[in-house]
Amino acid sequence: MSTTTVATATGVLDHAHREPAHPSLVRSAVGDILPLAVGVFPFGVVIGVAAAAQGLGPVGATATGVLVYAGTAQLTAITMLAGGASAATALLAVLVINARLLMYGAAMEPLFRPQPWWFRWFGVHFIVDQTFMIATARNDLADPRRFRRYWLTVAAVLTGVWVVANVVGVLLGPVLPADSPLGFAVTAMFIGMLLMKLTTRPALAATVVGAAVAAATATLPHGMGVILGTVAGIVAGTVTSRRSK
Amino acid sequence: MSLLTVLLLAAVVTYVLRVSLVTVVPAGQLPTIVREGLEHVSPATLAALVAVALVGGTHGGPALPVWLAAGFTAAVAWRTRNLLVTTGAGVGMLALLTWALS
């Protein structure tokens, strides 16, 4: 066994030749992700509640939560199917909503490029809004081992919180009143995320046009309002960006 | 098609999106306009989801408490730039308004 690398639950890499664990980086990673993980907890609970309402048990809700690992798209798919949308439309919505992951992947590609093959295929699964934001905000992750350690720590913490939140939601679902304000947590979170992205004119144009078109088409069947609004917003943002150059 | 099947397919779609520009096709090979468009997916999607939730459906259609809570949430987000505080404030305000106006 020469340089076999094992990823532990804490993301600390334990090499055959006993490389130091760099607890400060692990602590720093936990410190970065924990506030955001706590922030997504209500979101995970809401998804668990929604999944339970549609007949998914704790195992199904948790498994799909970890496999999809994209709450907005997952909740949209559940909500659309519950509202009578077809599977194809729900999947189209997932595709459109998660298209931003392409952008995140493109931006993070330099960090993944020097990684071993298993990490390039496995690590990308944990690209979400929160992990993208904190990892790209740091400038000390150029070393491949350092990034790997950081990324696995962040992924372990976020996934742990996500699983617990999903399970809590599934268990809470049957006892919550139908009109619980907890359902507003998702919208409140989206509003917060949106407001924090409004830092440029193209982002503002994408928001205003996307919201206007989505509102005008909100009553269309199969959740088409979200898709039309998103596409219109993307076009508006791109046009504004090109005009301002 | 069952919900479980759709969510498993959603997981496949989502993974393909994640891995595409990291491992399969280098991002630099994408046309410029596509890369520019991807930058605006996030605000456009969030705006559309919020608009549909407020106007159309998730919370039972347009309702004064929901609109007021949404406005309050936006103000808190703008002021604090903190997602956890924003979410908690929004849910708390809606609970308060629903109780007060019922």
**Helix coverage percent of residues of chain B?**
over 70%
Shape of chain B: elongated
Record field, number of beta strands of chain B: 0
Average predicted confidence as pLDDT of chain A: 83
Distance between the termini of chain B: 40 Å
The SSE order of chain B reads HHHHH
**Main beta sheet of chain A, described?**
2 strands, antiparallel
Class of secondary structure makeup of chain A:
mainly alpha
User: In percent terms, what proportion of residues of chain B is strand?
Assistant: under 5%
Low-confidence stretches of chain B: none
Low-pLDDT regions of chain A: 1-19
Helical stretch tally of chain A: 11
Which features does this protein show?
heterodimer, A: 245 residues, mainly alpha, two-stranded antiparallel sheet, 2 strands, 70% helix, 2% strand, globular, B: 102 residues, 0% strand, elongated
Structure description:
The complex is a heterodimer of chains A (245) and B (102). With 245 residues, chain A is mainly alpha-helical. Chain A has two domains: 5-179, no CATH class; 198-245. Helix content of chain A is 70%, strand content 2%. The longest helix of chain A is centred in the N-terminal third of the chain and has 31 residues, at 23-53. With 102 residues, chain B is mostly helical. Chain B has helices at residues 3-24, 32-38, 41-56, 64-80, 83-101. The interface between A and B is large, with 101 and 72 residues.
